[in-house]
Amino acid sequence: MTPVRVSIIGAAASLLLLLVVLELIRGRRLKERYALLWLATGVVLLVLSAWRDGLNTIAGWLGVETYPPAVLFAVATLFILLVLLHYSTVISKLTDENVDLAQRIALLEERVSRSSSGPRPPAD
Amino acid sequence: MVPAFNESGAIGRVVDEIRSFDPSIDVVVVDDASTDETASVAQAHGATVLGLPFNVGIGGAVQTGFRYALEHGYDLAVRLDGDGQHDASEISKLLEPLERGDADLVIGSRFVDHGGSYRPPFARRVGIRVFARLVSILGGQRVTDTTSGFLALDRAGIELFAAEYPHDYPEVEATLVALRSGLRLSQVQVEMRERESGSSSITFVRSLYYIVKVLLALLVASLRRYPRLEGVRR
Fold first, then answer.
1. pLDDT recorded at residue A46
2. B53 and A36 in contact by Cβ < 8 A?
3. Helices assigned H by DSSP within B100-203
4. A30 to chain B: which residues are within 8 Å by CB?
5. For A121, which DSSP code?
6. Distant-in-sequence, close-in-space partners of A109: CB < 8 Å, separation ≥ 6
7. DSSP letter at B195?
8. How many CA atoms lie within 13 A of B227 on its CB side?
9. A68-123: per-residue pLDDT in tens?
């Protein structure tokens, strides 16, 4: 059986995570789109911490017999991996878009400087 | 102002309709990096086209239009969809309260009275109603349609939305932000036509994300403070 203290600390930590994430969204430092996974992490960990029988049952399914709170660690690790993977895809997309923007600015600058200083393009 | 993503089949007629309704209206199509001929078709029909370098989503596209309106000093802006769902001849209905000075934001609602013919599928109808109810409660004014993409703004509205507009699935949250910022909102009944081409951007797979995101955004928006805009009125 999970020690009560582990359950309490786990629940408190998950609640803290949820509150911090909500406050970050409220302060516009985190967009909803990127907060959803964090919120899911917080909710799942909160449920698993508070619902002690559930944690034991799941630990039984997974073959974790000696120390059910290990499941909490496993789930937390899984969610952290998910968040990281998600961010990797986001960074990849941002990289592509950033290069695209830089290229467009270079092309625009060339066009602007040509039309303001050099020979004017005909009829424009 | 018309946001469009891959609407080459409908955008020409949309632009024509607006221009035949009132030729003095400047039509701006915001092309959200379409992969079809949307931009060139719109241009050929006489619209100014703002081409986004990559797809930024409907909210970011719409806000591009608001920022254009802000930068070019427009006092009135109308937003309608690029797929032909909205009837341009109803623009006058939306502008009326703005021109009388009775409102800053007019939403073309499909549900003001029950005479409207628009009957969405059950799940969507429930969703629309729940969001409308939530925004009404949180915003302190009865709103009948928070997912409509047909709206008109005065200068105060343009300034607000140019500065602050959600980037994905924006309409519901934007309505609440407008109310909490003190914009005077009014609603007029409009008809919705069947889509001429393309498909709704809300597929079944995305609807869960849609619901969760909008609920979260509403929760957070009602926890935020927004500067009231009353002072800027003429």
1. 96
2. no
3. 122-139, 155-163, 171-180
4. none
5. P
6. none
7. P
8. 8
9. 999 999 999 999 999 999 999 999 999 999 999 999 999 999 999 998 875 555 55
Compute the distance between CA of residue B188 and CA of residue B97 in angstroms, rounded to an integer.
9
B28 is written with which tokens?
């701006």
Distance (Å, rounded) from C-alpha A16 to C-alpha A43? Answer: 11
Check whether B234 has a pLDDT greater than 60: no
Helix pair B155-163, B57-71: axis angle to 10 deg: 130
Residue pointed to by tokens 């629309």: B128
SS3 state of residue A3: coil
Query: To which residue do tokens 């449920």 refer?
Result: A47
Sequence spans of domains, chain A:
4-83
Q: How far is A32 from chain B (nearest CA, A)?
A: 6
The vertex-A46 CA angle with A42 and A47, nearest 5°, equals 120
Of B168, B213, B224, the CB nearest to A26: B224
